[in-house]
Design goal:
The protein is mainly alpha-helical and 204 residues long. It has a domain of 51 residues. The protein contains ten helices and no strands. The radius of gyration is 26 Å and the shape is elongated.
């Protein structure tokens, strides 16, 4: 009886470990996803390993050719290489796959801004803001919109964009500095009009 009991325990242990091994393999396979591959590509992109990042992004597309973030990643990669034409092409491909993926509009805006086409960039930033229903990218969208409007010398519109960024992120140091700069440039008359229209904000 004792020997059979020992054998039974050993059989149970074998089955348990075999099951654990299968689960481990399944978990490993679950990492082979577009999201995981894209996260790896993003890390490589941030570190400047562009060739490796490109390989990871292409692997992401092979896993799911509808995954819009991979195409925006490729756009950024080609922009960093100085190939604006390819960067624009990948932005358009991202939009075809998901027109509401906000970073594709932000990337397009930055491409236009880098080319000095500020009016077009403003339109892209505004489109990004309108599509960002969950306001996940709203702070950076409003801040970059403000900077672009400043380049067009549309200071009052830039001021309003910076204020929106501050309303979402009260500790946004750059946006606060930009508001202060515009106040100094436009002078007391502008500040009085803001107060009259109840649009003034208090910066500590």
């Amino acid at each position: 009886m004792r020997r059979s009991a020992v054998c039974l325990v050993l059989v149970i242990m074998v089955l348990v470990f075999a099951r654990c091994g299968a689960n481990t393999m399944q978990f490993s396979d679950s990492l082979n996803t577009p999201e995981a591959e894209y996260a790896k590509a993003l890390g490589l992109l941030e570190s400047g390993a562009l060739d490796q990042a490109e390989a990871a992004l292409r692997s992401t597309m092979q896993l799911d050719d509808r995954y819009a973030p991979a195409y925006v990643g490729m756009s950024r990669l080609f922009f960093e290489r100085g190939d604006v034409k390819e960067a624009i092409r990948y932005v358009h491909m991202a939009r075809i796959r998901d027109a509401d993926y906000v970073p594709s509009w932000l990337m397009a805006a930055r491409l236009y801004a880098s080319a000095g086409q500020y009016e077009a960039a403003v339109n892209e930033f505004r489109e990004a803001i309108s599509r960002d229903k969950d306001r996940l990218w709203a702070v950076e969208s409003y801040f970059d919109l403000g900077r672009t409007l400043e380049k067009l010398n549309k200071l009052e519109e830039a001021h309003d964009a910076y204020v929106e960024a501050i309303s979402l992120d009260p500790l946004h140091v750059e946006a606060r500095a930009s508001v202060t700069r515009i106040w100094k440039t436009l002078g007391p008359e502008f500040l009085m009009r803001l107060r009259f229209e109840n649009r003034d904000i208090i910066l500590p």
